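worker-03 picked up job from queue 'complexes'. Input manifest follows; four sequence lines, order preserved.
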Amino acid sequence: MPKTAARAHDNPYVVQPVMKALKVLELVARQGHEIALTAVSKELRIPKTTTFRYLQTLTAAGFLDHNRATDRYNLGPQLRAIARADASVSKIRELARPAMIELMHEFNETVNLAVKGNGTIVYIDLIEANRSLRMQARIGESHPMHSTALGKAILAFLPEAERRRQLDLPLTERTGRTLIEREEIERQLRQVARTGYATEMGENEDGAMCVGVPVLDEDGYPVAALSISAPLMRMPHSLAAKAGMRLREVAAGISARLGSHPAGATR
Amino acid sequence: MPKTAARAHDNPYVVQPVMKALKVLELVARQGHEIALTAVSKELRIPKTTTFRYLQTLTAAGFLDHNRATDRYNLGPQLRAIARADASVSKIRELARPAMIELMHEFNETVNLAVKGNGTIVYIDLIEANRSLRMQARIGESHPMHSTALGKAILAFLPEAERRRQLDLPLTERTGRTLIEREEIERQLRQVARTGYATEMGENEDGAMCVGVPVLDEDGYPVAALSISAPLMRMPHSLAAKAGMRLREVAAGISARLGSHPAGATR
DNA sequence: GAGCAAATTCCGCAAGGCGAAACCTCTGTT
DNA sequence: AACAGAGGTTTCGCCTTGCGGAATTTGCTC
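worker-03 finished. Artifact:
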């Protein structure tokens, strides 16, 4: 059996130890229960020593859990955490999408959905208005928190300590109108907390504005934000206020449904 | 910062390529969105070439997904499948446990819970009766499908094609009473499908018997099975029939509650 | 169409992964 | 209590194969 070059035809860049370790991970996971070193080794036809090393590594990384009592391995916390975080994002996107499409038609402007990243907001979905002049972000793109309506909406609803930590980071000046004075930002955030929606006027991109609201999870934590963005010239204050109101309604609906899952696994 | 030997103190058996690739996987997963090669490389301080290889490997294994349009990576189907399977098993165990304890007290015999493995059933939980002579399986142990009540209960409710595939595999003879005639087994499975419970009399272990029923998911697929096992001498046919009935009730309750989660992710 | 930035490919070096075998450590047994 | 055996851990030297700098290609942007 020519097993040496077995995987080479797949992709010359595949790193064998990684691939084999992933097979181990997969096998352990698919058992749905603890499994011992020897069993993995036999099943995968990988020598015991090598299997041992992979199991050790996977365990060290938290992807597996080693039960010292039974000397068996099963799924670890890391993998569950990743899956949970992913499911959460998927769920928000799924819940938000219909409402976003509705909003897009209502205002005929681009509607954005973003999650809180590390000091930034990250677009996870957007419905573009069918207009020649439109604001475009990209899914996967990160923007600073303090210069976007999405970010300000999240900041305003963050727990005190975390908000402070965010604002302690250096605040980049994206345009001439970006707020970089701590005082000024905090004043605005207090207002956002009162009205429930945040606005941004050319602070992130020249000529563009945005109205954003937070999406809260069952604990009231702002996991994401929803916004409508438009060229400044097309969105006067009065319309922005109206958009803010509608966004609040929509986000409230999403937030409500976010908490309604029984969550099968441990926490 | 001496980062070369940074991980060596952890565990001499940690395989570096695997560990680093897992860090890549984790980083990508924790983004909650697509991320590009260069970003991963910079974040993790791993040379671009190496990062590239890991991303390729993780993608080839299905743990990541490579979006060719944007040349970015995010979580792949494999990881989601693993997480889903794990959550499902956890949930079954969780839901079944109270009922199993009740059953154990009711019959004063060991109650077993198993999931379908690859051609086998795998014990994922059991409540042992407090008797000196008792049947004992072990959590994590696998038994053949055709020689156990648990397996027969599952087989009987499997889709036609999959059942055939299972029975095409060589059927090991565990005891002198193990059924290995295809005809005979299929006749029994039809009966199991009618009555809703399967029995096994010394076919898996001499002197032991077992009554089992399937646990069905929302699609009617037998994901697991529940059984009561006892020494043959303690369980006459009449009692076995009674146990079968009770097991059916209990499993129906579990099956019903299995479908009651909204299931956040795609399918 | 020039100029980047990012991804992909190439290539030679040697780090470090590999696996056989020895060793240890339990559990169950006589 | 000693034994046997299965399964887990450690050692060790070979040599595969992973590594990463550099070159090349690809795909944008101006």
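worker-03 released lock.
Chain A has a mean pLDDT of 84.
The helical segments of chain A are 16-31, 37-44, 48-60, 77-107, 149-157, 160-168, 182-195, 237-258.
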